[in-house]
Amino acid sequence: MQSIIANDLGTPERKSGKSISLEVNGVQVTVPEGSSVMYAANVAGMKVPKLCATDNLEPFGSCRLCLVEIDGRRGYPASCTTPAEAGMKIRTESPKLADLRRGVMELYISDHPLDCLTCPANGHCELQDMAGVVGLREVRYGYDGKNHLHEQKDESNPYFTFDPSKCIVCSRCVRACEEVQGTFALTIDGRGFNSHISPGQMQPFIDSECVSCGACVQACPTSTLMEKSIYEMGQPDRTVTTTCAYCGVGCSFIAEIKGNSVVRMVPNKNGMANHGHSCVKGRFAFGYTTHPDRILKPMVRQSIDDRWKEVSWEEAIAHTASEFKRIQQKYGRSSVGAITSSRCTNEETFLVQKMVRAAFGNNNVDTCARVCHSPTGYGLKTTLGTSAGTQAFDSVMDADVIFIIGANPTDAHPVFASQMKRRLREGATLIVADPRAIDLIRTPPHIEASHHLQLRPGTNVALINGIAHVIVTEGLANDAYANERCEPQEYQTWKDFVSQPKYSPEAVEKITGVPADTIRGAARLYAKGPNSAIYYGLGVTEHSQGSTMVIGMANLSMATGNMGREGVGVNPLRGQNNVQGACDMGSFPHELSGYRHISDAKTRELFEKEWGVKLDAEPGLRIPNMFDAALDGSYKGMYIQGEDFVQSDPNTQHIEAALRNMECIVVQDLFLNETAKFAHVFLPGSTFLEKDGTYTNAERRIQLIRKAIPPVAGKADWEITMDLSNALGYPMQYDHPSQIMDEIARLTPTFAGVSFEKLDKLGSVQWPCNDSAPEGTPTMHIGKFVRGKGHFVLTEYVATDERTSSRFPLILTTGRILSQYNVGAQTRRTENVMWHEEDILEIHPHDAEHRGVIDGAWVSVASRAGEIVLRARVSERIQPGVVYTTFHHPDTGTNVITTENSDWATNCPEYKVTAVEVTPVSKLSVWQEHYREFTDQQEALLPGKMGS
Ligand code: SF4
Ligand code: SF4
Ligand code: SF4
Ligand code: FES
Fold first, then answer.
1. Is the same domain home to 240 and 330?
2. Do 432 and 562 belong together in one domain?
């Protein structure tokens, strides 16, 4: 395994247009101006001993191990904090330097436990390495003096320990928490010999501000901060580079493996999306992969009241194929379909849609992106020509104004949030539009949004029109840019449209609740830039006007010239790891891969030739249409790969009724999830550790996941789909997912240059990747928009049908929290559950008082669709008239109360606006009681359970 220190340049790489040349140990070296002497020495191939320096943190200069001699300078300056200068002559080795370094090490070691042989870091400890490097042979001061050896270990964090007796107070952890993570949870208390590291106000880690990102653990050169898994399992024996299976940031990791078990996940320094950082989910929450709840044998049953029967893979596949054939014979070709998941790889998703189109002979395939970012695809394609974000994450480092709309990056996209915070600390300004006070609005000590547009849920479009109104009527638009890059007449029509009095800040204040002056201030700031970037999330898309709002943001960006360079753009923050990929791969009922309409004869011809079948030109059913068709009896069979829509889709009771009306539901997943409780066939899926493939993150970055261990249930997911297709009579033959990617590349112009070989070589590429961009495209729309002229579309504000009334006077809006992920199937099966054991309803103190709701008490939340009961938290984070909760726990049933309202263009559900009433109660809702009974019944039907 590679040494941690081997590729560490000591101090960060500096960006400068100017280079300087100097000499290190007689070797000439050229480095960017601003580089440290240590950096220059490393570039020249000379390793200077060091402890407190590392190349992802600003130098601190505390350990005094990195001393060097510089011609013409007195003394022995620390190379990490000394800037390199042109013409310098540096010596990194001399008898005097060796002597000084040994002296420093002697002091460290005299206050360090001598338990190297039993220390979990043995062989991977920088202190140990440095003792060897400087040639320490004796410790003259002995070990009996004043020391820190008896300090107590803090084991309060579920994933790592803090053993102060081993701390050398190098402050790498403190700096990592500040500079990399941006949380400022750690401090150095005391001075000199008495100085020590303290989480918060001398608190245990778990009670401090710490968000368990692991950056301090990563930075620690000793075993002071150390993963518990290393204590338990020892050092790994091999590594595999892979990609996080959680959110759309797409962090790259080095999975450290021992036998067939993951010992730890180390964020990859070379990962282009994360640059060596991580969050608690990707870094630590991998325990679900070996959780005893995993189902490892295929199972079948006739009815959902029957016991599950374990069968062989052959039997399960043959049974499934025969059921689908029977259903199609009886109810027609369109009576079956499939749903793909944004948790699955590009290759798996591509195969499922291929199987539906080629083997089922229809286009009834949809993806869970339908219920999150389908408006992004529609809105950005309409205006700009590409259904994807415009920038790479790194682009934010050039943004002057960051405008976050309907997203909560510190919880949902934490590693990108850390990068954003870094830019904000450097001086960028922040505007946030969100009904709730998300953490980024005020994160002491350095971050404070200049404007929080705390709008009423459902009024996004009015707000964006109001902002556009200010920009246009105050002459702040970039007319020259918009007239050149877009159709001038269309642009003028849009300007006239937003200039109407009904979109004046005063008129918009009445709709949104955002003060007119705040709208003006935010608009002026965004227009002034000079580089203004929009980042948005599900708070934009999951509305009845989700697509309109995406268009509205693109209009604004084009009108102000904020498109087509670094630091600007319109950027969707994707929830799940492969939302972008699931959309790219043609798993919508109307589109083949690369967003080409199924009705287009030329595109169909291309696929027909490759696949050797005739394709149906008619778009198939979208997810909500599938449920409606199931209820009316025309849709009877469904193959679901990695998706749990019973928990994640709106109006749970409607979905449950639809599923009960079907004859063959096939769930391919890791656990008996909520959807699987209604299934007739269960095919055990594989985790990201058990297969090869690719994910595409929110910045269009395609990255490999690599098989670290064999599939525990025997088959990777792509193999299951392939087997099923073969059993259905449509032959598929792949030996490896790289061959599937080759097929995708042959059929998809934006992927034409993508191959596993290239991904292996480059680490990742951002599509489009083809002959004109062989190494990918970090920034889109440079020079001109992908569709040619940018397309301004008028965005009339139409209020949602979901209205408050005297019966349902509050608006419920939903979101996520850091420690949990989506439906929680993975994170609930890890220690992360300790941070969020249940979904909680946030309610403003006024609304709580009015209803007699006490903090921590049970409340009923009733909507037109249903009722649930959960615990209340009285909080000023949420505005009066609005309540907020998450949907991570199935027994809460948050989606029992969300409605079937959806985006006019894409049917993306309006999760963010549900009229509700909240009342204190003392028992569960009827649905929740039923849920518990049904879950008990279904679990008892599993093999090996009582009664089976
Ligand atoms: S905990 Fe580790 S990183 Fe932090 S000061 Fe101590 S030795 Fe350095
Ligand atoms: S785990 Fe992350 S947030 Fe917690 S103290 Fe370490 S760096 Fe800071
Ligand atoms: S930010 Fe997202 S991709 Fe990165 S480690 Fe966390 S969950 Fe994984
Ligand atoms: S590495 Fe330079 S002073 Fe510690």
1. no
2. yes
pLDDT of residue 345: 95
Structure tokens at 408: 């909560």
Per residue in 525-557, pLDDT (tens digit) is: 999 999 999 999 989 888 889 999 999 999 999
Measured between alpha carbons, how far is 253 from 593 in angstroms, rounded to an integer? 28
Domain holding 567, by residue range, is 374-572
CB 906 within 8 A of CB 847: no
Centre of ligand 1 from the C-alpha of residue 938, in Å: 49
Closest Cα to atom 4, ligand 2: which residue?
210
* Nearest-CA residue for atom 3 of ligand 2: 210
In this structure, the answer to whether residues 216 and 171 fall within a common structural domain is: yes
Q: What is the CATH number of the domain that holds 338?
A: 3.40.50.740
Q: Are residues 422 and 549 in the same domain?
A: yes
What is the rounded CA–CA span in Å between residue 380 and residue 390? Answer: 9
Residues of the chain with pLDDT under 50: 1-5, 946-948
Question: Last residue of some domain: 572, 599, 614?
Answer: 572
pLDDT in the model for residue 383: 95
* Cβ atoms of 784 and 563 closer than 8 Å: no
Query: What's residue 133's pLDDT?
Result: 87
218 alpha carbon – ligand 2 mean position (Å): 10
**Residue 1: predicted pLDDT:** 44
For residue 6, what pLDDT is reported? 55
User: What confidence score (pLDDT) does residue 645 get?
Assistant: 80
State whether 284 and 348 are in the same domain: no
569 C-alpha vs ligand 3 centroid, how far in Å? 22
Does residue 211 share a domain with residue 99?
no
Position 948 scores a pLDDT of 37
Split into its structural domains, the chain has a count of 5
Alpha-carbon separation of residue 508 from 454, 465, 504, 545, 550 (angstroms): 13, 8, 6, 16, 18
